[in-house]
Amino acid sequence: MPYLLLALAIAAEVCATSLLKLTDGFSRLWPSLAVGAGYVLSFYLLGRALKHIPVSVAYAVWSGAGTAAVAAIGATFFGESLGRLQWCGIALVIVGVVLLNLRSTH
Question: Using CA atoms, how far apart are residues 67 and 75, in angstroms rounded to an integer?
């Protein structure tokens, strides 16, 4: 169950971050409210997951997966270009998260 909460926290954060572009600098009400709600939900779920998962592991997974997912969404839906160096950076984030999980004691 804790990892399901973490996955849902990641999904909420990724949705909220992806919607940031649609807020037009927080000048559009509904996208802005959706962003706020997404972040509140994400932190709530992350906090619940932290009852059972070490913070170092949970935050690394949450931020790393979120970073990789938002970069892919930006490239896919917003036409943002990712070069070889950016893809290598995303791969390093993922490797770092995996290494943190290998050292955890849960």
Answer: 12
Work out the number of other CB atoms within 10 angstroms of the CB of residue 101: 14
Amino acid at 24: D
Q: What global pTM score does this model have?
A: 0.88
Whole-Å CA distances, 38 to 93, 101, 104: 23, 26, 28
DSSP string, the chain: -HHHHHHHHHHHHHHHHHHGGGGTTTTSHHHHHHHHHHHHHHHHHHHHHTTTS-HHHHHHHHHHHHHHHHHHHHHHHS-----HHHHHHHHHHHHHHHHHHHH---
* Sign of the torsion formed by the C-alpha atoms of 8, 10, 15 and 17: positive
Give me Rg for the CA atoms of the chain.
15
pLDDT at 106 over 80: no
Is the pLDDT confidence value at 44 over 70? yes
CB contact set of 52 (below 8 Å; sequence gap of 6+)? 1, 2, 106
